[in-house]
Amino acid sequence: MIRAVVDTNVFVGACLGTGAANRVVGMCLEGHLQALMGSTLMAEYEDVLGRTALFKGCRLTARERSELLDIFLAQTKWVRVYFGWRPNLRDEADNHLIELAVAGSADSIVTRNVRDFSGMDLSFAGLRILSPEQFLKEQTP
Fold first, then answer.
1. Residue 10 contacts residue 108 (beta carbons within 8 Å)
2. What does the alpha-carbon distance between residue 13 and residue 20 come to, in Å, rounded to a whole number?
3. Is residue 121 packed enough to be buried (19+ CB in 10 Å), middle (13-18) or exposed (0-12)?
4. For residues 106 and 90, what is the distance between their CA atoms, to the nearest angstrom?
5. Over 70: is that where the pLDDT of 122 sits?
6. Contact partners, residue 54, CB within 8 Å, separation at least 6
7. Looking at residue 131, which CATH number applies to its domain?
8. Which of 6, 59, 83, 111 is most exposed, with minimal Cβ within 10 Å?
9. Which domain holds residue 27?
10. Across the chain, which distance is largest between two alpha carbons, in Å?
11. What are the b/e assignments for 58-94, b being 16+ CB within 10 Å?
């Protein structure tokens, strides 16, 4: 099974009904994709879901988003990050995604911020940074 770190922006996109993001989260819920979760990413998910302005006009209520997160989390694999890599990404706040991916032997990080991962000081063989659309394209035979 494919293992990936699903960035919070993909989960938010799924809540908002964005097609590719919705399908990536659906793959996790259906057991076709093993999403990895760690403490820093979990805190980020909770923080982002608490930003009500972000979800203005969202088809899901706050309670439904919370329930979706609970269902999603039940399908994730918890990974402890014991070593802090510093790939020095454009957005320092994204370094934890690389650390989680390396610790959990992820195949990819699925994110809307692919550009923020270019120019890393460290590279990790086999770890790919993909948009939801790129990820889905690779999964379709």
1. no
2. 8
3. exposed
4. 21
5. no
6. 12, 48
7. 3.40.50.1010
8. 83
9. 2-139
10. 40
11. eeeeeeebeebbeebeebbeebebeeebebebeeeeb
Distance CA 21, CA 23 (A): 5
Residue 14: exposure state from Cβ atoms within 10 A (0-12, 13-18, ≥19): buried
81-114 confidence digits (pLDDT tens): 987 666 565 566 778 898 999 999 999 999 998 8
Closest CA to 97 of 87, 53, 50, 11: 87
> Helix (H, G, I), strand (E, B), or coil: what is residue 37?
strand
State residue 23 phi and psi, 5-degree precision. -70, -40
Give the DSSP letter string of 45-113: HHHHHT-GGGGTT-SS-HHHHHHHHHHHHHHSEE----S------SSGGGHHHHHHHHHTT-SEEE-S-
